[in-house]
Amino acid sequence: MQPYELSIATAAEAIRARELSPLELVDSVLNRLEQVEPQLQAYVSVGADAARRAARDAERDVAAGRLRGPLHGVPMGLKDLIDVAGAPTTASSRVRTGHRAETDSTVAARLAAAGAVLLGKTHTHEFAYGLTTPQTHNAWDRGRVAGGSSGGSAVAVAAGAATFALGTDTGGSIRVPSALNGVVGLKPTYGLVPRHGVTSLSWSLDHVGPITRTVEDAALVLSSLVGHDPRDPASLTAPRPQYRPNGTTDLTGLRIGVPHNYYFDHVQPEVEAAVRLATAELEGLGAQLVEVEIPMTRYVQATQWGLMVPEATAYHERTLRAVPELYRDDVRILLEAGELMPAGDYLRAQRSRTLMRQAWARLLEDVDVIAAPTVPATAVKAHEETITWPDGTVEAVSDAYVRLSAPANITGMPSLSLPVGHDTAGLPIGMQLLGRPLGERELLRVGHAYEQTRPARPLATAQTTA
Protein backbone atom coordinates (compact mmCIF):
# COMPACT_ATOMS: atom_id res chain seq x y z
CA MET A 1 0.00 0.00 0.00
CA GLN A 2 1.31 3.43 -0.98
CA PRO A 3 1.30 6.29 1.58
CA TYR A 4 -1.32 8.21 -0.41
CA GLU A 5 -3.73 5.32 0.18
CA LEU A 6 -3.49 5.53 3.98
CA SER A 7 -6.23 6.82 6.24
CA ILE A 8 -5.42 9.62 8.66
CA ALA A 9 -5.46 7.20 11.59
CA THR A 10 -3.06 4.76 9.92
CA ALA A 11 -0.74 7.48 8.65
CA ALA A 12 -0.69 9.18 12.05
CA GLU A 13 0.29 5.96 13.79
CA ALA A 14 3.05 5.35 11.23
CA ILE A 15 4.34 8.91 11.72
CA ARG A 16 4.23 8.54 15.50
CA ALA A 17 6.14 5.26 15.27
CA ARG A 18 8.74 6.85 12.91
CA GLU A 19 7.80 4.31 10.23
CA LEU A 20 6.66 7.07 7.86
CA SER A 21 7.82 10.66 7.65
CA PRO A 22 5.47 13.57 6.91
CA LEU A 23 7.59 14.36 3.85
CA GLU A 24 7.20 10.82 2.50
CA LEU A 25 3.45 11.06 3.00
CA VAL A 26 3.13 14.50 1.41
CA ASP A 27 5.36 13.53 -1.52
CA SER A 28 3.27 10.42 -2.15
CA VAL A 29 0.01 12.38 -2.13
CA LEU A 30 1.46 15.12 -4.35
CA ASN A 31 2.67 12.53 -6.83
CA ARG A 32 -0.80 10.96 -6.86
CA LEU A 33 -2.33 14.42 -7.28
CA GLU A 34 -0.08 15.12 -10.26
CA GLN A 35 -1.15 11.81 -11.80
CA VAL A 36 -4.94 12.20 -11.45
CA GLU A 37 -5.51 15.95 -11.46
CA PRO A 38 -5.43 16.39 -15.27
CA GLN A 39 -8.37 13.97 -15.55
CA LEU A 40 -10.35 14.97 -12.45
CA GLN A 41 -9.74 18.72 -12.02
CA ALA A 42 -10.38 18.69 -8.29
CA TYR A 43 -8.11 21.62 -7.44
CA VAL A 44 -8.26 25.33 -8.17
CA SER A 45 -4.63 25.70 -7.10
CA VAL A 46 -1.88 23.52 -5.65
CA GLY A 47 1.06 24.76 -3.58
CA ALA A 48 3.44 21.82 -3.84
CA ASP A 49 6.56 23.70 -2.71
CA ALA A 50 4.83 25.19 0.32
CA ALA A 51 3.39 21.78 1.20
CA ARG A 52 6.82 20.17 1.10
CA ARG A 53 8.26 22.94 3.28
CA ALA A 54 5.49 22.39 5.81
CA ALA A 55 6.10 18.64 5.69
CA ARG A 56 9.81 19.17 6.43
CA ASP A 57 8.87 21.38 9.38
CA ALA A 58 6.53 18.66 10.63
CA GLU A 59 9.30 16.08 10.18
CA ARG A 60 11.64 18.14 12.37
CA ASP A 61 8.92 18.57 15.00
CA VAL A 62 8.25 14.84 15.10
CA ALA A 63 11.96 14.06 15.37
CA ALA A 64 12.21 16.48 18.30
CA GLY A 65 9.24 14.88 20.07
CA ARG A 66 6.88 17.76 19.35
CA LEU A 67 4.05 15.73 17.80
CA ARG A 68 0.90 17.85 17.90
CA GLY A 69 -1.60 15.07 17.30
CA PRO A 70 -2.99 12.79 14.60
CA LEU A 71 -3.18 15.50 11.92
CA HIS A 72 0.45 16.55 12.24
CA GLY A 73 2.09 16.17 8.85
CA VAL A 74 -1.10 14.94 7.14
CA PRO A 75 -1.89 16.56 3.75
CA MET A 76 -5.28 18.18 3.15
CA GLY A 77 -7.30 20.20 0.68
CA LEU A 78 -9.57 23.12 1.56
CA LYS A 79 -12.68 24.04 -0.39
CA ASP A 80 -12.05 27.35 -2.09
CA LEU A 81 -14.54 29.20 0.06
CA ILE A 82 -12.21 28.92 3.06
CA ASP A 83 -9.75 31.76 3.64
CA VAL A 84 -6.04 31.07 4.00
CA ALA A 85 -3.92 34.14 4.68
CA GLY A 86 -2.12 35.36 1.57
CA ALA A 87 -3.97 33.00 -0.78
CA PRO A 88 -6.87 33.75 -3.13
CA THR A 89 -10.36 32.59 -2.18
CA THR A 90 -11.87 32.37 -5.65
CA ALA A 91 -15.14 30.57 -4.84
CA SER A 92 -14.58 29.18 -8.37
CA SER A 93 -15.89 32.48 -9.73
CA ARG A 94 -14.63 35.28 -11.97
CA VAL A 95 -16.23 37.66 -9.48
CA ARG A 96 -13.33 36.96 -7.12
CA THR A 97 -10.54 37.68 -9.62
CA GLY A 98 -7.70 39.36 -7.77
CA HIS A 99 -8.99 38.46 -4.33
CA ARG A 100 -6.46 37.50 -1.66
CA ALA A 101 -7.33 36.65 1.94
CA GLU A 102 -5.75 38.84 4.61
CA THR A 103 -6.12 36.36 7.47
CA ASP A 104 -6.80 32.68 8.06
CA SER A 105 -10.34 31.45 8.56
CA THR A 106 -10.92 29.87 11.98
CA VAL A 107 -10.91 26.34 10.56
CA ALA A 108 -7.74 26.90 8.52
CA ALA A 109 -5.99 28.32 11.59
CA ARG A 110 -7.08 25.39 13.75
CA LEU A 111 -5.91 22.81 11.22
CA ALA A 112 -2.59 24.61 10.85
CA ALA A 113 -2.21 24.58 14.63
CA ALA A 114 -2.88 20.82 14.54
CA GLY A 115 -0.01 20.46 12.05
CA ALA A 116 -2.02 19.56 8.96
CA VAL A 117 -0.28 20.32 5.65
CA LEU A 118 -2.22 22.33 3.07
CA LEU A 119 -1.88 21.01 -0.50
CA GLY A 120 -4.19 23.50 -2.16
CA LYS A 121 -7.69 24.83 -2.68
CA THR A 122 -10.37 22.57 -4.14
CA HIS A 123 -13.09 23.45 -6.63
CA THR A 124 -16.63 24.35 -5.65
CA HIS A 125 -19.74 25.04 -7.68
CA GLU A 126 -19.57 28.81 -8.11
CA PHE A 127 -20.11 30.37 -4.66
CA ALA A 128 -21.38 26.92 -3.54
CA TYR A 129 -24.66 27.58 -5.36
CA GLY A 130 -25.20 24.21 -7.03
CA LEU A 131 -25.07 20.45 -6.60
CA THR A 132 -22.80 19.35 -9.48
CA THR A 133 -19.46 21.28 -9.45
CA PRO A 134 -19.30 21.18 -13.27
CA GLN A 135 -15.57 21.87 -13.60
CA THR A 136 -14.69 18.71 -11.62
CA HIS A 137 -15.21 15.09 -12.73
CA ASN A 138 -16.47 12.19 -10.64
CA ALA A 139 -13.60 10.18 -9.19
CA TRP A 140 -15.12 6.86 -10.31
CA ASP A 141 -16.29 7.89 -13.77
CA ARG A 142 -14.99 11.02 -15.45
CA GLY A 143 -18.11 11.28 -17.57
CA ARG A 144 -20.33 11.81 -14.53
CA VAL A 145 -20.91 14.67 -12.11
CA ALA A 146 -18.78 15.03 -9.02
CA GLY A 147 -21.66 16.30 -6.92
CA GLY A 148 -21.51 19.60 -5.18
CA SER A 149 -20.87 22.03 -4.10
CA SER A 150 -17.82 20.52 -2.36
CA GLY A 151 -17.11 18.38 -5.40
CA GLY A 152 -13.39 19.14 -5.57
CA SER A 153 -12.85 18.18 -1.93
CA ALA A 154 -14.71 14.88 -2.25
CA VAL A 155 -13.00 13.92 -5.51
CA ALA A 156 -9.54 14.74 -4.14
CA VAL A 157 -10.09 12.50 -1.10
CA ALA A 158 -11.68 9.70 -3.14
CA ALA A 159 -8.80 9.65 -5.62
CA GLY A 160 -5.97 9.85 -3.07
CA ALA A 161 -5.06 13.43 -4.01
CA ALA A 162 -5.67 14.52 -0.40
CA THR A 163 -5.74 12.49 2.80
CA PHE A 164 -8.67 14.62 3.96
CA ALA A 165 -10.41 17.83 2.98
CA LEU A 166 -12.91 20.35 4.25
CA GLY A 167 -16.18 21.21 2.57
CA THR A 168 -19.21 23.34 3.32
CA ASP A 169 -22.81 22.20 3.42
CA THR A 170 -25.87 24.43 2.93
CA GLY A 171 -28.29 21.88 1.46
CA GLY A 172 -26.14 18.77 1.21
CA SER A 173 -22.89 20.11 -0.24
CA ILE A 174 -20.61 17.92 1.91
CA ARG A 175 -22.77 14.81 1.90
CA VAL A 176 -23.88 14.79 -1.75
CA PRO A 177 -20.39 14.70 -3.32
CA SER A 178 -19.20 12.36 -0.57
CA ALA A 179 -21.97 9.90 -1.46
CA LEU A 180 -21.37 10.21 -5.20
CA ASN A 181 -17.61 9.63 -4.83
CA GLY A 182 -17.63 6.92 -2.17
CA VAL A 183 -16.14 8.79 0.79
CA VAL A 184 -17.28 9.91 4.24
CA GLY A 185 -18.79 13.36 4.73
CA LEU A 186 -19.92 14.91 8.01
CA LYS A 187 -22.21 17.92 8.31
CA PRO A 188 -21.96 18.82 11.99
CA THR A 189 -24.60 20.43 14.17
CA TYR A 190 -25.27 24.02 13.11
CA GLY A 191 -22.82 26.28 14.93
CA LEU A 192 -20.51 23.51 16.18
CA VAL A 193 -17.72 24.39 13.71
CA PRO A 194 -17.08 28.14 13.35
CA ARG A 195 -17.52 29.71 9.92
CA HIS A 196 -15.48 32.89 10.38
CA GLY A 197 -13.47 33.47 7.21
CA VAL A 198 -15.65 31.14 5.10
CA THR A 199 -17.54 32.64 2.15
CA SER A 200 -21.25 32.30 2.83
CA LEU A 201 -24.05 31.00 0.68
CA SER A 202 -26.85 31.18 3.24
CA TRP A 203 -26.04 32.36 6.77
CA SER A 204 -28.71 30.34 8.54
CA LEU A 205 -28.00 27.09 6.66
CA ASP A 206 -24.20 27.05 6.19
CA HIS A 207 -22.00 24.44 7.89
CA VAL A 208 -18.31 23.49 7.61
CA GLY A 209 -17.18 19.89 8.01
CA PRO A 210 -14.70 17.17 7.07
CA ILE A 211 -14.55 14.85 4.08
CA THR A 212 -12.45 11.75 4.73
CA ARG A 213 -12.02 8.14 3.65
CA THR A 214 -13.14 6.62 6.97
CA VAL A 215 -15.52 7.49 9.78
CA GLU A 216 -12.68 7.38 12.31
CA ASP A 217 -10.84 9.99 10.24
CA ALA A 218 -13.91 12.24 10.25
CA ALA A 219 -13.87 12.10 14.05
CA LEU A 220 -10.17 13.00 14.16
CA VAL A 221 -10.66 16.05 11.94
CA LEU A 222 -13.82 17.18 13.75
CA SER A 223 -11.94 17.15 17.06
CA SER A 224 -9.57 19.80 15.69
CA LEU A 225 -12.33 22.02 14.32
CA VAL A 226 -14.82 22.41 17.16
CA GLY A 227 -14.77 25.16 19.77
CA HIS A 228 -16.48 28.50 20.25
CA ASP A 229 -15.44 31.47 18.12
CA PRO A 230 -17.16 34.79 18.98
CA ARG A 231 -16.52 36.05 15.43
CA ASP A 232 -19.21 33.64 14.17
CA PRO A 233 -22.57 34.78 15.60
CA ALA A 234 -23.92 31.22 15.36
CA SER A 235 -20.92 29.59 17.08
CA LEU A 236 -21.89 27.33 19.97
CA THR A 237 -20.26 27.19 23.38
CA ALA A 238 -20.87 23.44 23.69
CA PRO A 239 -18.32 21.20 25.45
CA ARG A 240 -15.79 19.31 23.33
CA PRO A 241 -16.28 15.55 23.80
CA GLN A 242 -13.98 12.80 22.55
CA TYR A 243 -15.32 12.08 19.08
CA ARG A 244 -13.01 9.21 18.14
CA PRO A 245 -14.99 5.92 18.20
CA ASN A 246 -13.86 3.33 20.75
CA GLY A 247 -13.68 0.54 18.17
CA THR A 248 -16.55 -1.59 19.41
CA THR A 249 -19.14 -2.86 16.96
CA ASP A 250 -21.72 -3.61 19.67
CA LEU A 251 -24.82 -1.46 19.08
CA THR A 252 -27.04 -3.25 21.59
CA GLY A 253 -29.78 -0.98 22.87
CA LEU A 254 -29.43 1.59 20.08
CA ARG A 255 -32.67 2.50 18.33
CA ILE A 256 -32.28 3.26 14.62
CA GLY A 257 -35.20 4.88 12.85
CA VAL A 258 -35.88 3.70 9.31
CA PRO A 259 -38.30 6.05 7.50
CA HIS A 260 -41.34 4.57 5.79
CA ASN A 261 -41.98 7.84 3.95
CA TYR A 262 -40.03 10.49 2.09
CA TYR A 263 -36.49 9.08 2.20
CA PHE A 264 -37.35 6.01 0.11
CA ASP A 265 -39.76 7.80 -2.25
CA HIS A 266 -38.36 8.25 -5.77
CA VAL A 267 -35.11 6.42 -5.03
CA GLN A 268 -33.21 4.17 -7.43
CA PRO A 269 -33.81 0.49 -6.58
CA GLU A 270 -30.09 -0.21 -6.19
CA VAL A 271 -29.71 2.71 -3.79
CA GLU A 272 -32.64 1.54 -1.70
CA ALA A 273 -31.39 -2.06 -1.65
CA ALA A 274 -27.89 -1.03 -0.53
CA VAL A 275 -29.18 1.20 2.26
CA ARG A 276 -31.65 -1.41 3.52
CA LEU A 277 -28.88 -4.01 3.51
CA ALA A 278 -26.72 -1.63 5.54
CA THR A 279 -29.48 -1.09 8.10
CA ALA A 280 -29.84 -4.85 8.36
CA GLU A 281 -26.10 -5.02 9.10
CA LEU A 282 -26.64 -2.50 11.91
CA GLU A 283 -29.46 -4.64 13.26
CA GLY A 284 -27.07 -7.58 13.20
CA LEU A 285 -24.73 -5.56 15.44
CA GLY A 286 -27.46 -5.30 18.06
CA ALA A 287 -29.35 -2.17 17.05
CA GLN A 288 -33.15 -2.13 17.07
CA LEU A 289 -34.74 -0.97 13.83
CA VAL A 290 -37.82 1.20 14.35
CA GLU A 291 -40.09 2.34 11.53
CA VAL A 292 -40.58 6.11 11.71
CA GLU A 293 -42.57 8.76 9.88
CA ILE A 294 -40.72 11.86 8.71
CA PRO A 295 -42.71 15.00 9.60
CA MET A 296 -43.66 17.95 7.40
CA THR A 297 -42.21 16.45 4.24
CA ARG A 298 -44.35 18.53 1.89
CA TYR A 299 -42.67 21.69 3.20
CA VAL A 300 -39.01 20.62 2.92
CA GLN A 301 -38.23 21.96 -0.54
CA ALA A 302 -40.16 25.22 -0.11
CA THR A 303 -38.50 25.85 3.25
CA GLN A 304 -34.98 25.10 1.98
CA TRP A 305 -35.31 27.36 -1.04
CA GLY A 306 -37.31 29.96 0.89
CA LEU A 307 -34.40 30.40 3.29
CA MET A 308 -31.45 29.91 0.97
CA VAL A 309 -32.43 31.99 -2.05
CA PRO A 310 -33.08 35.37 -0.35
CA GLU A 311 -30.09 34.96 1.99
CA ALA A 312 -27.77 34.20 -0.94
CA THR A 313 -29.11 37.18 -2.88
CA ALA A 314 -28.59 39.46 0.12
CA TYR A 315 -24.97 38.32 0.41
CA HIS A 316 -24.30 38.99 -3.29
CA GLU A 317 -26.43 42.13 -3.61
CA ARG A 318 -23.58 44.55 -4.27
CA THR A 319 -21.59 42.49 -6.78
CA LEU A 320 -24.70 41.23 -8.52
CA ARG A 321 -25.62 44.81 -9.36
CA ALA A 322 -22.07 45.84 -10.23
CA VAL A 323 -20.79 42.90 -12.31
CA PRO A 324 -23.67 40.50 -13.11
CA GLU A 325 -21.90 39.35 -16.28
CA LEU A 326 -19.12 37.73 -14.23
CA TYR A 327 -21.44 35.13 -12.69
CA ARG A 328 -22.20 31.85 -14.42
CA ASP A 329 -25.69 31.90 -15.93
CA ASP A 330 -27.16 29.28 -13.55
CA VAL A 331 -25.94 31.13 -10.46
CA ARG A 332 -26.86 34.59 -11.74
CA ILE A 333 -30.42 33.48 -12.48
CA LEU A 334 -30.84 32.11 -8.95
CA LEU A 335 -29.45 35.30 -7.44
CA GLU A 336 -31.74 37.47 -9.56
CA ALA A 337 -34.71 35.29 -8.61
CA GLY A 338 -33.98 36.04 -4.96
CA GLU A 339 -34.61 39.73 -5.60
CA LEU A 340 -38.19 38.86 -6.55
CA MET A 341 -39.04 36.94 -3.38
CA PRO A 342 -41.39 38.80 -1.00
CA ALA A 343 -40.31 39.23 2.61
CA GLY A 344 -43.43 37.33 3.64
CA ASP A 345 -42.18 34.20 1.89
CA TYR A 346 -38.88 34.38 3.80
CA LEU A 347 -40.71 34.84 7.10
CA ARG A 348 -42.98 31.88 6.36
CA ALA A 349 -39.90 29.77 5.61
CA GLN A 350 -38.45 30.76 8.97
CA ARG A 351 -41.68 29.79 10.71
CA SER A 352 -41.74 26.49 8.85
CA ARG A 353 -38.16 25.83 9.98
CA THR A 354 -39.15 26.39 13.61
CA LEU A 355 -42.04 23.94 13.35
CA MET A 356 -39.85 21.43 11.52
CA ARG A 357 -37.19 21.58 14.23
CA GLN A 358 -39.81 20.92 16.87
CA ALA A 359 -41.28 18.00 14.94
CA TRP A 360 -37.86 16.40 14.35
CA ALA A 361 -36.98 16.84 18.04
CA ARG A 362 -40.10 14.88 18.95
CA LEU A 363 -39.20 12.21 16.40
CA LEU A 364 -35.74 11.83 17.90
CA GLU A 365 -37.20 11.22 21.35
CA ASP A 366 -38.28 7.80 20.10
CA VAL A 367 -35.08 6.81 18.24
CA ASP A 368 -31.38 7.59 18.66
CA VAL A 369 -30.36 7.77 14.99
CA ILE A 370 -32.17 7.80 11.65
CA ALA A 371 -30.71 5.88 8.70
CA ALA A 372 -31.64 6.75 5.11
CA PRO A 373 -30.15 7.22 1.64
CA THR A 374 -27.91 10.28 1.28
CA VAL A 375 -29.02 10.90 -2.30
CA PRO A 376 -31.76 9.12 -4.26
CA ALA A 377 -29.57 8.34 -7.28
CA THR A 378 -25.93 7.67 -8.03
CA ALA A 379 -23.91 10.12 -10.11
CA VAL A 380 -25.68 11.11 -13.30
CA LYS A 381 -23.86 11.72 -16.58
CA ALA A 382 -22.46 15.21 -16.87
CA HIS A 383 -24.88 16.35 -19.57
CA GLU A 384 -28.03 15.08 -17.83
CA GLU A 385 -30.16 17.79 -16.24
CA THR A 386 -33.12 15.71 -15.05
CA ILE A 387 -33.97 12.29 -13.62
CA THR A 388 -37.13 10.51 -14.76
CA TRP A 389 -38.61 8.17 -12.13
CA PRO A 390 -40.57 4.99 -12.98
CA ASP A 391 -43.92 6.71 -12.32
CA GLY A 392 -43.11 9.33 -14.98
CA THR A 393 -42.14 12.07 -12.54
CA VAL A 394 -39.34 14.25 -13.90
CA GLU A 395 -37.04 15.88 -11.34
CA ALA A 396 -34.14 18.29 -11.83
CA VAL A 397 -30.84 16.72 -10.83
CA SER A 398 -30.12 19.47 -8.29
CA ASP A 399 -33.59 19.05 -6.73
CA ALA A 400 -33.10 15.28 -6.51
CA TYR A 401 -29.72 15.54 -4.86
CA VAL A 402 -30.78 18.17 -2.31
CA ARG A 403 -34.12 16.55 -1.49
CA LEU A 404 -32.85 14.02 1.06
CA SER A 405 -30.09 16.15 2.55
CA ALA A 406 -31.99 19.43 3.10
CA PRO A 407 -33.83 18.41 6.31
CA ALA A 408 -30.58 18.31 8.27
CA ASN A 409 -29.68 21.83 7.11
CA ILE A 410 -33.11 23.24 7.87
CA THR A 411 -33.15 21.75 11.38
CA GLY A 412 -29.42 22.11 12.06
CA MET A 413 -29.09 18.44 13.03
CA PRO A 414 -25.83 16.56 12.37
CA SER A 415 -25.71 14.16 9.44
CA LEU A 416 -23.00 11.68 8.47
CA SER A 417 -22.79 10.16 4.98
CA LEU A 418 -20.81 6.96 4.49
CA PRO A 419 -20.38 4.55 1.57
CA VAL A 420 -22.50 1.37 1.63
CA GLY A 421 -21.75 -0.16 -1.75
CA HIS A 422 -21.79 0.37 -5.50
CA ASP A 423 -24.42 0.00 -8.19
CA THR A 424 -24.01 -2.30 -11.19
CA ALA A 425 -22.19 0.48 -13.07
CA GLY A 426 -19.60 0.63 -10.28
CA LEU A 427 -20.81 3.98 -8.91
CA PRO A 428 -20.79 4.55 -5.13
CA ILE A 429 -23.95 4.55 -2.99
CA GLY A 430 -24.17 6.52 0.27
CA MET A 431 -26.21 6.16 3.45
CA GLN A 432 -26.72 9.05 5.82
CA LEU A 433 -27.14 8.85 9.57
CA LEU A 434 -29.02 11.73 11.20
CA GLY A 435 -29.09 12.46 14.91
CA ARG A 436 -29.98 14.88 17.65
CA PRO A 437 -28.21 18.26 17.84
CA LEU A 438 -24.69 17.73 19.20
CA GLY A 439 -25.16 14.01 18.59
CA GLU A 440 -22.04 13.65 16.42
CA ARG A 441 -20.46 11.17 18.79
CA GLU A 442 -23.36 8.76 18.37
CA LEU A 443 -23.41 9.11 14.59
CA LEU A 444 -19.68 8.44 14.42
CA ARG A 445 -20.05 5.44 16.70
CA VAL A 446 -22.71 3.89 14.49
CA GLY A 447 -20.92 4.71 11.25
CA HIS A 448 -17.65 3.29 12.55
CA ALA A 449 -19.36 0.12 13.77
CA TYR A 450 -20.80 -0.45 10.30
CA GLU A 451 -17.47 0.32 8.67
CA GLN A 452 -15.70 -2.24 10.83
CA THR A 453 -17.88 -5.01 9.38
CA ARG A 454 -16.93 -4.19 5.79
CA PRO A 455 -13.70 -4.79 3.85
CA ALA A 456 -11.38 -1.85 3.32
CA ARG A 457 -12.56 0.39 0.50
CA PRO A 458 -10.23 0.94 -2.45
CA LEU A 459 -9.48 4.36 -3.87
CA ALA A 460 -11.50 5.55 -6.82
CA THR A 461 -10.49 4.22 -10.21
CA ALA A 462 -10.99 7.44 -12.23
CA GLN A 463 -12.20 5.53 -15.28
CA THR A 464 -13.60 7.06 -18.45
CA THR A 465 -17.24 6.53 -19.40
CA ALA A 466 -17.65 3.68 -21.83
UniProtKB/TrEMBL annotation:
Record domain Amidase: where: 24-444
SUPFAM superfamilies referenced in this protein's UniProt entry, alphabetically: Amidase signature (AS) enzymes
InterPro entries: Amidase (IPR000120), Amidase_CS (IPR020556), Amidase_dom (IPR023631), AS_sf (IPR036928)
MF (Gene Ontology): catalytic activity
UniProt name for this protein: Amidase
Source species taxonomy: Bacteria, Bacillati, Actinomycetota, Actinomycetes, Kitasatosporales
